[in-house]
Amino acid sequence: MMSQMAHHAMLLIVVVGVLSITTSGTPVASARRHPLDPLSAAEITAVRTAVLASRLVPARPLRFHYVGLDEPDKPDVLAYAYGYGAGGSSSRALAPRRAFVIARAGGQSHEFRVDVTNASSPSVLSHAVHRGTGFPTITLEEQFAAQALAPAYPPFADSMRSRGLRLDDVICSVLPVGWFGGAGAGARRVAKMQCFVAGATANYYARPIEGVTLVVDLDRMAVVGFRDRVAYPVPKAEGTEYRAGKAGPPLAGPAPAPGVVVQPEGRGFHIDGHVVRWANWEFHVGFDVRAGMVISLASVHDEDAGLRRRVLYRGFVSEIFVPYMDPAEEWYYRTFLDAGEFDLGLWAYPLQPGADCLANAAYLDGYSADQDGNPVKVRNVMCVFERYAGDVAWRHTESGFPSQLITEVRPDVSLVVRMVVSAGNYDYILDWEFKTSGSINFVVSLTGILEMKATSYTHADEITADAHGTLVSENTLAIYHDHYVTYHLDLDIDGTNNSFVKNIITTRRNTGNPATGGADTPRRSYWTLRREVAETEADGQVDVNAGPPADLLFVNPGKKTRMGNEVGYRLIPAGATAGSVLADDDYPQRRASYSKKQVWVTPYNKSEKWASGLYADQSTGDDSLAAWSKRNRGIRGEDIVLWYTLGLHHIPYQEDFPMMPTLSGGFELRPSNFFERNPILRTRSPSPSRGGHSPNCSRNV
Amino acid sequence: MMSQMAHHAMLLIVVVGVLSITTSGTPVASARRHPLDPLSAAEITAVRTAVLASRLVPARPLRFHYVGLDEPDKPDVLAYAYGYGAGGSSSRALAPRRAFVIARAGGQSHEFRVDVTNASSPSVLSHAVHRGTGFPTITLEEQFAAQALAPAYPPFADSMRSRGLRLDDVICSVLPVGWFGGAGAGARRVAKMQCFVAGATANYYARPIEGVTLVVDLDRMAVVGFRDRVAYPVPKAEGTEYRAGKAGPPLAGPAPAPGVVVQPEGRGFHIDGHVVRWANWEFHVGFDVRAGMVISLASVHDEDAGLRRRVLYRGFVSEIFVPYMDPAEEWYYRTFLDAGEFDLGLWAYPLQPGADCLANAAYLDGYSADQDGNPVKVRNVMCVFERYAGDVAWRHTESGFPSQLITEVRPDVSLVVRMVVSAGNYDYILDWEFKTSGSINFVVSLTGILEMKATSYTHADEITADAHGTLVSENTLAIYHDHYVTYHLDLDIDGTNNSFVKNIITTRRNTGNPATGGADTPRRSYWTLRREVAETEADGQVDVNAGPPADLLFVNPGKKTRMGNEVGYRLIPAGATAGSVLADDDYPQRRASYSKKQVWVTPYNKSEKWASGLYADQSTGDDSLAAWSKRNRGIRGEDIVLWYTLGLHHIPYQEDFPMMPTLSGGFELRPSNFFERNPILRTRSPSPSRGGHSPNCSRNV
After folding, report:
1. Which pLDDT value is given to residue B483?
2. Residues of B numbered 13-52 whose beta carbons fall under 8 angstroms of chain A's beta carbons: which are they?
3. Which chain B residues have a beta carbon less than 8 Å from that of A676?
4. Chain B positions in Cβ-Cβ contact with residue A569 (cut-off 8 Å)
5. What is the ipTM metric for this complex?
6. Which helix or strand (DSSP H or E) is residue B161 part of?
């Protein structure tokens, strides 16, 4: 992530007192609040009122850094959703609505819990001051304010002038400083700024003013450091544009044909408030300013058993760690924690209908609070659509019978729930794809713009020392970096208490002797399974690239299939399994030390949501997934959480310039002895009247 | 693969003298033969005539095991396709049309080369007798004949009677015996048969008659061995059906909505004979009875350079190795080489329109020869369609400018070319997905039916010893196994001579001293690239799961970008990277020893097409990818071939019964410094009139 002086709040509609979530075209208002529904605009306003009216923190200004739902306790939510627990009596009682707030005032980070059950009389329930290391996310307004400091700072103005640059053309990015030892809890809340020339192109990331760094105290909002270390030519604007009509004439050659997905019977899914129902799936889609999209209470209907069965309690992207690999002064500290330093939901923008999502998509809005605590609505921040990609759910052609060829094919339709985070220069398309087979595919697609460094090089032949990047254009190095997208997935496989099991593929020598497990055949080897149940968190850490291959399962040890197999889901990585190769003692690695292993399993703890800690800006790693996991708690037969980190080492190539074609990775959660048999065996076969084609619309179909 | 007495040839139209390739709905006849066009029906007939008329092999019967195109030499094809080489004078001259034939007669394997340039006067150009190890693929007719032997063999009939089974209900599969030491070149050509009860279900694989084995001499077509070793209960038929209407009532609950892709302006691709042109891509789609679909001469138009540029000369699935992991007498030898023992193209059936492929697909037919040498047409054996999956080609939202939010999104449309191989019980959906970005995604989707073993167990609690599989139903073990799908990909990146380069991610300690490549910053580590160019075949072997992470590139050392970077493509595994864990000295591993590494790179050699050898049945591994590669030839700056093996360890789960939901893996070939910049930067932005939606058809879109 490279954040910049983002004025986007100005572009978003600020709403006050409007309580509705709409889906595109068909507004759906629901007065019934689900306990996991995100705060409404009215509730955010109520939070603001309560906090500002409270005498607990008299210091002003008070700035809101986080306002979000204070999640009810899990047993209460389960009771609401599934009607059990707590004797069942209060299962559908109205849960209290509470907000969690982080605000800065008087140089301190304050935490509030606010009751907004009755939005007209909100009350602060608790207040605390954060005394540990790290700071909350940087607000957009702070970024505007910091950016406004640069041109007014005479040494900076001089530097720009000496480079022949017009201050009007200069745009600065606010970059977290990371942590590189020292103060910790006593640190000043600062950020750095690096600047760009934006006059002639929308792609200012391609035109860095290399060598100039500003340091800003975010609480005092003042420049406290400046360095003009070195000057390189600013790369040319030519060839950097990406906007239609400005990037050159449209491609002249043949192009794919335009197409559209038509659903003659309408959509197959229904959205009721925040609850989505589609085929055998039901889940809640929430929005949180830090995580963005949050999927909760995902359950699948087991048609054979006649039961709705739980799969996941709550899942979201907990962190995106993006360390760059240039040790130079202007680059060494770029070790971004996009969720913890910037808020993923704050950088999720309205999706473009028919382009970001298929034309048949429905959209959901999101609400957050600005720095003053007022609600901000982001229209169409998430979308839901059915996908007809030409995939096959299952098929078989049987040629073994005389005089008949049996072919049974069931085309696949899946449901995609999508959010896009434009974290400064980079864009992350984050998909949850639900399948009728019971699988959930998680896909991350990277696109957007690289972070670039100005250089004197204009040809690779000139490079004699390590340039830490690829020369993607004249005077332009795209710097090597990594992406680690960490998911928090509180799996509840057919119930709350689960175990993590490794089915380890183990080679055996055929002894030739049935008495010792062998067979009297010339086969010399085979593999079988060694089953390991993870007892504690140490057993729950897996580098999927090392050690023997294994199926990784999350099972419910209290539930077995008819055949006696433990009910479970398994995790299948599908590309993008890179782990961090930074030194263990390096500072960014200490802050995100979970990034060396793709899999961590922890016992559920309501407070353990953010892999790099609640206060991630300038964090030291003392509040992080790896730190919590050092306690090595028991995870067998417990309410456990899977943390999966999808990773990529990104060596840029010229194709990534000036705008990167999508690169994807993902993983699958797949039912594995969860159902008694293939749950979609009895899916209807397609016929001309059901999906085969649509006569009114067909042209060449 | 489990092959059975397949009568499917009876179901396919036998055509004589018809020379045309059709695309569904719009027949396209082309008299101009491309040098890589597969043999036409007329040419196959001519081959038969010439071989049977030849006096070189007087022995009868003579059975055709392989009839296919004898590929012209690569320089001649390149000259035809791109008009260069050979002085250019004869570049479009009519190349001779030749066939390659493998036939069995007199207990020997004969090879013929036949000229069919003039199909009315074909001539045998050469004849040879194969004297090495191994045998050609087993024909369908041999399988029918072998199957017919079983009920007529009294000891077998007695065994069935003693089990209370009706011979009418029994169906047998013909299974290659593998190789487990011994004879080699002097071996008898035999196969084994295992049988099933098929009366009450189409899914006879679920009802094995465990413990009974027949051995058949395929040349003499006689039973030469029989064993009734042990008896287990035949698993019940109930719950094994998968046919619509027979698998139970259709699912009653909510289902995905039917949908169809509409292309208001028609398809975006054109098929001229076997040449497909779509967007910036052009390639030739052929069909070979052993490989099935063959993609040749894939080239991409570089709009910025105004040039058509080569990517791949020829690519196909060379082998599918499927070893089972049960050392028992009836299972140890099941170590299938589906292409080499059975022919992938022979087990590719007509695709079901609107189910196997999207409704907007076009279809291509395939031709092969039956055992008597007569042409057999398989209608709609391959399909081509544009895919509108809701993916994004590139996007960016820029919030850094005051009072404007820039959002540019280019939806992705790709072109899928598909074949499905129903290799007995298993179905492999084999996709090549071409993208306008220049990428090719290769996807293998596994579905179909597991191989099952009868057992006395009815509940997992009864299992005390290693069962070598999962209890998926009462009395039914689904046996552990692997799938290794090996691609032969003759890459010609922007020209014939390429190098294989590993960009190895290498951690460096920051020395803190610019004089030693460090920087005076507190950052302690970073990674950079160590570039290794593979000199010989030994360097070309990569286990992608071991060693340091690396980008794997195929570059043209003679071509550089404007910036001086070597022009290349890179290989990106996307899941399914399992390697074999069998012992090196185990027989199946010796036959397919390439299966321990995903990547092999060899110098192009026209004869090296089949990873497990031309004569794979009962092969010993002496003619195989690993054997050829032992010569350790130079591969730097040569015409090189990438062999990529996609692998899965398959632990079955109950969901895979009685029919497996699709499980996919794949890899991507992605341009990497091939283009000067993002080649689809100038793609048109979607508008309501181009793909956004289609007003005549919209209902809820």
Report:
1. 98
2. none
3. 654
4. none
5. 0.94
6. helix B154-162
**Cα–Cα distance, A171 to B398 (Å, whole number):** 13
The Cα B470–Cα A527 span in angstroms is 13
Distance CA A55, CA A59 (A): 9
CB contact under 8 A, A654 and B676: yes
Q: A307: left (phi > 0), else alpha (psi -120 to 50), else beta? A: beta
Q: What pLDDT shows up at residue B93?
A: 55
Q: Does B409 contact A259 at a Cβ distance shorter than 8 Å?
A: no
- Asked if A460 contacts A471 with a C-beta cutoff of 8 angstroms, the reply is yes
Q: Is A338 a catalytic residue?
A: yes
Cβ neighbors of A66 (< 8 A, separation 6 or more) are A100, A101, A102, A136, A137, A289, A290, A343
pLDDT at res. B403 = 80
Q: In whole angstroms, how far apart are CA A425 and each of A344, A455, A645, B495, B682?
A: 13, 19, 21, 35, 19
Q: Which of A398, A450, A442, A397 is nearest to A423 (CA)?
A: A450
Q: pLDDT for A545-594, tens place per residue?
A: 999 999 999 999 999 999 999 999 999 999 999 999 999 999 999 999 99
Taking the Cβ of residue B299 and every Cβ of chain A, the question of whether any pair is shorter than 8 Å is answered with no
C-alpha span between A587 and B467 (Å, rounded): 49
Q: Is B653 a catalytic residue?
A: no
Taking contacts as CB-CB distances below 8 angstroms, the residues of chain B near A646 are none
Average pLDDT score over residue span A15-35? 46
Task: Report which DSSP code applies to A442.
Answer: E
CA-to-CA distance for A248 and B429, rounded, in angstroms?
A: 40
Does the N-terminal peptide bond of residue B61 adopt cis geometry, omega within 30 degrees of 0? yes
Task: Report the gap between the CA of A504 and the closest CA in chain B (Å).
Answer: 10
d(CA A426, CA B495): 34
Residue B572 to chain A, least CA–CA distance (Å): 8
Would the CB atoms of B682 and A250 count as touching at under 8 Å? yes
pLDDT in tens, A250-293: 998 899 999 988 999 999 999 999 999 999 999 999 999 999 99
Q: Which residues of A touch B449 (CB under 8 A)?
A: 396
pLDDT per position as a tens digit, B446-462: 999 999 999 999 999 99
Q: In a 10 Å sphere around its CB, with 0-12 CB exposed, 13-18 middle and 19+ buried, how is residue B464 labelled?
A: exposed
> How many Å apart are CA A471 and CA B565, to the nearest integer?
8
